[in-house]
Design brief:
This protein is mainly α. Helices cover 62% and strands 0% of the residues. It has a domain at 8-60. The longest helix has 51 residues, at 9-59.
């Protein structure tokens, strides 16, 4: 009797199904990691903005900056200090 040393079709099908199942499980997990990473970047940006705002407020007598909301009409909240 001759001994066969190869893969049977059944083995290849099961291996392919196992890899497909693992891939189907991994894709949503990687998507969640990407969303969490984006949230961490956003939180870091907010932390930076709050630190810079606090520094500006400390340097300018406790006042926030004024922003223009209409084009061509500058806000004159206080006289400039030189």
């Amino acid at each position: 009797m001759k001994k066969c040393n190869g893969f049977a079709l059944r083995d290849v099908v099961f291996a392919t199904a196992a890899v497909a199942l693992l891939g189907a499980i991994a894709v949503p997990a990687l998507s969640q990691v990407r969303m969490d990473s984006g949230r961490q970047v956003c939180i870091g940006n907010y932390r930076y903005i709050s630190a810079v705002s606090g520094s500006y407020i400390n340097d300018h007598a406790g006042r926030m900056w004024a922003l223009e909301w209409k084009g061509g009409y500058p806000i004159q909240s206080s006289p400039a200090r030189i």
